[in-house]
What we know:
With 225 residues, the chain is mainly α. The chain contains 10 helices and no strands. The longest helix has 31 residues, at 61-91.
Amino acid sequence: MLIIPVNWNKASTRNKLLPMKTIIKLAAVCAIFLIGVGCQEKNTAGDGSYDEELERIKKSEELKDFLVEEKDAGAEANGQAKTEAAEAKVAKQDTVDSLTDELIVQLNHFGEAIVSAKDKASAEEAVKKLNGIGDEIAAIAARLDKLETPSEEEKERIDEKMLSADKAMEKKMGDAMQAAMFDEKVSSIIAPAVKEFGARMEQHNAIFDRQIVSAKRLKQRDARR
């Protein structure tokens, strides 16, 4: 008897519930194979021709129809998966506002990395985090550079969001930063990494200034220099 093993643990819940039409066709194909096995047993006993019956099974319209239908179903599922992926990509389309949110998240990670530097080991780990954060911000800047420059009114709204995030980060890391700089073992590791991080950020200033910094804020910043 032919046994077709199915590992239900690995199959998704969606795949466990087969349509009735598929179940019927699957049963028909199994019946065809069982007939073939029966013929093999008969052939062993000297009755009938197993080769002839096997050839008939290979040419069976039921088997052909089932295999074609399953192939089409697989192609349809694959096409649907690609469509869903494309729709998800469109749904997550970049905007200046969404990329500003991503930038704020990375700046918060920067503050958390500095705060986490308590000793030599944690300072070295913080440096690794800073490098990763720098890479993320560089990627954000590249995506931001591809977008149209928002209106001055929109920039002022984004400015307020960035200023609020800056204040929150300064409050979070102020004392920790001071403690880190006074600890020679920590500062000797963190200080060069922070300097390098700042240099990397300067490479993207032109993009950030154009896309998310208002003219009012730029004027204030220039006046302080």
